[in-house]
Amino acid sequence: MHSAYQLSWNYVYLRLPNRLIFTNQTRSGNSSNMLKSFNSNLSGKVSLLIFVLFVITFLPKMNRVVSEEETCLCAYDGYGYYMYLPHLFEKGHLDIKQEWAQQLQNNYCDGIYAYQIIRTETGKELNVYHMGQAYIELPAYLIGDVFARMLGYETDGFSKPYFLLFILNALFFIFLGLLYLRKTLLLFLNDKTAAIAILVLYVASNIYITFFLQYDLQHLYLFALNAIFFYHTIQFSRTLSRKHLLLSAIILGLTVAIRPTQVLLGVFPLVLLLSKYGIRGEFLKRIWIYPVFGLLWNIPQIAYWWIIGGEPFIPNLHSENLILSDPNIFDFLFSYKKGWLLYTPLFLLILHGMYIVYHKNRVLFWSFAIFTPLYIWVMSSWECWWYASSYSSRVMVDIYPLLIVLVGFSIASWKKNLHKILGYSFLIGVCVLNILQTYQGMKGYLSFDSMTKQHYWYIFGKTDIPNYTGIHLELNRGIVDPEWIERAKNLPSDDYTYKQTRIHESSEPMIIKEAMTIKQLVVLDEVPSDEGMLEINIDYKTTDSTKSVILMFETLSEYKWNWYSWNPVELSKGQVQDSLLHNTYYVNIQRLRHDNDNMNIYFNSLEGGSIEVEDLKITAHTIERD
Predict the structure, then answer these.
(1) What is the mean pLDDT of residues 214-228?
(2) Predicted model pTM
């Protein structure tokens, strides 16, 4: 019988004094032609079926675009990646202004705030997001532009032809990802095992929600490109063909232009080339091509920074940073909020897969052993480690074409009946769990942003929840809801501890004409939890209700004093002038990125206005979850 591992070749490693090398070894099988033909097509049929299901899923969306029920091609992060194209074709340059970006969102996306353009300290307006994704959106944009001009639509990058081509481009990359995922798996596994691996990847992971609901983000595209990169990298190691080496380097360079942390995937060609050639001329003659293509693909980005921003290298314009010294590895992997292995337990099998690969291909093992923890460490070091609204950890989707190889090795090793029973029972279980959780997410039971332990178990295993309540969800920091305080007080004491803490009180009169700091505090030194709300009671007069005076609450990272949240309270503009006001305001405490993050509380007169403060009390209402 054929081995469950790849049929035509496999790697045999030889340990030399300073390196590992691969050699190819041919194996033949004795299956009948009919069975061989069936097996050779099974993974293809599974891949085609999955693609057809994605097409069917996207058809209603395309119908809504045609009927103009849906007009917002992209917003939020996706708009940041895409806006380079409409601005370049409309204006002829990339000096993008926030006003222009906002107008396009006003026209098509119900006025969603265009936060993607920020003003730097030098007064320049720059797009926070890298332009690499625009490269792979360009062909669809050009086709959409032709149809828009032919059919008389607005040529602004958002009208119906652009939207339809944008979706078709996403479907093309879904197909491309499936195609190269299958080709890669067949380098290591037989067709049946590859088919199983492909099926469980799409049924038992967060791919469906990520691709369908967030098709304007990087993950769908990086999934496909990483599959292509890995295929050509392995093929080069197998055949030593310069064509595969070149394609591997070109694709990796492109992905780095899309997301700079893709440079971590350079571990694979680095280890594979070192294993073959050691640190000598033959190695250097081949490895240099990777940084060269990484640089070439990034030349437009560097030019944009230099011409528009005035500097050739601007590594991060986000309000958050990559803090490698303070990763959130446990939360990233296991938390109820967004734990990758909690919501996508299929990938627990990579541990067993690593064990199998260690005994079959030591070089591939070391590639994965270096890359996988390194990638998790870096991804969990981003201060917003949960990556906003998503199901499970969306950044892990990017590297699924690599990780599923390890899952495939694990599946292929199940020889004994007991192993098969346990293994396939696990696969069925994680498939059912993911289908259920996907359904819960689409129905609104499972939150893509605010999950907690209490809510997880409240909805666990349920497809219908009469009298559904979201009281167990994490506080929604995007909405200021004073009624949350009363709900917090009435939460069951077995699972929650409510606490009220006075963090500032000032009864001495103050005249505010300019910036004045009220308090600087380490948040968790003052309150037991960051899940809560500040209640501000203030008695004051404003002398000019046409001018702004604000009370600002800024949250700062303990590292580099990076501001990642601003909550201003307007005290003067629009208020009754020269009368004593007794007002109450509410501000959410932001989710802290680090244990010692700070909050600055201060007044600021932005337009020369002034207020007279007679009394100020700030009270924190917080809950702790057991």
Answers:
(1) 98
(2) 0.92
